[in-house]
Amino acid sequence: MTSRPVLTFWYEFASTYSYPAAMRIDDMARAAGVDVIWRPFLLGPVALQQQGWTDSIFNTIPAKGRYMWRDLERICAAEGLAFNRPPIFPQNTLLATRIAHLGEAEAWIAPFSRAVYEANFAHGHDISDPDVLSRILHRFGLNAGEVISRAQDRRNKDSLKARSEEALAHDIFGAPSFVAKGELFWGFDRLPQALAWALKD
Amino acid sequence: MTSRPVLTFWYEFASTYSYPAAMRIDDMARAAGVDVIWRPFLLGPVALQQQGWTDSIFNTIPAKGRYMWRDLERICAAEGLAFNRPPIFPQNTLLATRIAHLGEAEAWIAPFSRAVYEANFAHGHDISDPDVLSRILHRFGLNAGEVISRAQDRRNKDSLKARSEEALAHDIFGAPSFVAKGELFWGFDRLPQALAWALKD
Fold it and tell me: How confident is the model at residue B13 (pLDDT cuts 50, 70, 90)?
């Protein structure tokens, strides 16, 4: 029995280019015959430790920010994705990421994550709001109160913290990042190359 | 008579992703039916004014640098371009850029620029060395001494300085950048989209 090729998808809910990646990766991977491991993580602690940054470079360098928003708008138009520039950027993604981390081994991680991205980048909702996250969890038939409570268990919180260390060990410095056979790819525009790498002999 | 679509190609000789862009843009633009305006500029003054940066982000954030060199290696392999990580990064590109600026209206600007990129990213030469640049100029049948002397005229130097102001006015923050019909695209990976934009009605 040969195992199917695998791609690990590292994403941060506040990350703008992670939005099209999250919306498209499952379809693109299915077409390529690659399995996707969804790996939510908090980019903030990674950026702080690696770069000393406490805010997004898209805020600290306004010209870069203006470009990114326009570029993202063009990408979403090309991919047929709804897009509205969110009123808050970057959002506080701690609770959403803890929930997604709890769901890593569950079937709902991908649809939950896509719904959080749509709430952020299509509907302009505050994704740090437990009510917003509860409504999304309900939509997938989950007991939101119980999930949110378990997401904030020490064990889940510590396990998510370890993901930032793991990201640093992979030399990940941004999101979305893709890892295939030890090779790192960064950015939605590198997703086709990452899938091709996963298929290499 | 309708005018042909045009793309302005802003490049910096020290910029790593400008290398594949410089090597491929004329062929890709020809295939698309787009004319290219080669526009060399100094990214240093732009980055300093806009970002407060005095060194490349690929040096100041080592994980980002390691990724970029590997990514560039993969791109060059895919594009069939020779690549050897240069011993000096970023190189001092003042003289090379002054020469290229002098040649903006001349037929030699594209082949000269490609040769400077190859000297930097394929052959590991010091492109701040007037002898290296002279040999390239000779190759294109130019009087190197005369060109280098004219490149350092006050008029040419001031005119090149004005290009950095023009870059800032276009909201350019990196290289390679492409401008088509007032729309900005950044990075070699956006060249196909930039060409498509140039062709829009």
Answer: very high
CB contact under 8 A, B173 and A61: yes
pLDDT band at B129 (very low <50, low <70, confident <90, very high): very high
What is the DSSP-derived secondary structure letter of residue B65?
H
pLDDT, tens digit (0-9, with 9 covering 90-100), for A86-106: 999 999 999 999 999 999 989
Strand partners, A179: A8, A184
- Give the closest-approach CA distance of A161 to chain B in angstroms: 20
Could you report the predicted ipTM of this complex, rounded to two decimals? 0.92
Nearest to B11 by CA among B79, B78, B107, B110: B110
Q: Which residue has the tokens 């090379």?
A: B96
* B71 neighbourhood in chain A, CB within 8 Å: 185-186, 190
CB contacts < 8 A, A to B, total 48
Average pLDDT, chain A: 95
Number of H helices, E strands in chain B: 10, 4
Minimal CA separation from B163 to chain A, in Å: 17
Q: Which of B51, B71, B189 sits opposite A61 (nearest CB)?
A: B51
